[in-house]
Amino acid sequence: MRQLIRGRVLDFHADPAETEDNHRYLEDGAILVEDGLIRAVGDYASLREPGLAEIDHRPNLILPGFIDPHIHFPQVQVIASWGAQLLDWLNTYTFPEESRFADRAHATAMAGRFLDLLTAHGTTSAVAFCSVHPESAEALFAASEARNMAMIAGKVMMDRNALPAVQDTPQQGYDDSKRLLEKWHGRGRGRYAITPRFAITSSPEQMHAAGTLAAEHPDCHVQTHMSENLDEIALTKQLYPSARDYLDVYEKYGLLSENLLLGHCIHLEPREIARMAETGSRAVFCPTSNLFLGSGLFDEAGLRAAGVTSGIATDVGGGTSYSMLQTLNEGYKILQLRGQKLTPLAAFHWATRGNAIALGMEDEIGTLAKGSAADLVVLDSRATPAMALRMERAETLAQELFILQIMGDDRAVAQTYVAGQPMKR
Ligand code: GUN
Ligand code: ZN
Fold first, then answer.
1. Would you say which domain of life the source belongs to (predicted)?
2. ipTM of the assembly?
3. Pocket probe mutation, ligand 1, options 72, 239, 298, max atoms within 8 Å of Cβ
């Protein structure tokens, strides 16, 4: 099927924080989509053809779909749980809730709801933690495949310091992960992420198993958490007394690489930052979560100056919104408290191409390049009365983007396309 999707088209070819010539903006633009792939992008006048199906999204903006590089699928009913910091929050709310994902029917029901929420918020790809149960990853991969979504996910490996109902063992964690990886990695648009939850819930034996798996599958991402909370860091040092620092736990088991995604990275030591830069390991900033759990303020400029690549993500259910717009809003405010600036162009680059770069997938997602899947978000800058009123005084594209970034949420997502298919209504 061929279709022309018309609107105000915006995409990025460089990081606005680094390069002046960084985006393309077509006031009356269009995207030619055939069999779910982008065939051409250009001015509407140059792409129109007699008889070609058209959908007109003007005056809305069309961008590559948002990418959320850190989110917890089994926390859809944990989001907005009151009053705790990380370790209490995990023990009180999160682990009990994740235990329900042993039930395949529950996991399947939640997977559909989860993906519907992502696309309702304009997110077309995510890197997701599943529960410890292979059923949860099976459910998420199956639902993603049915929607043709580029989903990166893995079952968490965790064998200590948690309820028995959410623990595996080093061998079982290895075997289950391996089986899921062999089934789902590279199947359709799915990719498997090896997922030791974090140092506290994995024994040295399990970390070793995760390292073995990563060495056997160097093309897989590895996702975990690091240095989110001061009590977490202190407990990690107790549990791994010979580690030089938190990163050293992951380093000892051979997990550092350009495929490693380290959620949070707030309270880092200079050696950790230098090693992350040397190994290409990625930091993932989770602003709504870091504020909600009182974790701390991410140092974006410091990491950038050191040569560390960062993504930006929701971290639902520690995070409080599925919206990458709201994530950019809170990210802007955290960087304000740090004396740093997140410009609107840099923000929209980050949520699209920037996150794709953090995943090493910039040729596949976060792009409108010819031949890539037509994963698109259509944004309405006048979605609410307050936004429409503010927009009366917006004069530039950057001002409009900033209004979306600060005031926008799922109401501003007029449509989301996954591989050319509309996901809303
Ligand atoms: N660290 C280990 N597990 C988690 C989790 O589920 N959420 C957050 N925010 N941090 C974690
Ligand atoms: Zn997380």
1. Bacteria
2. 0.99
3. 72
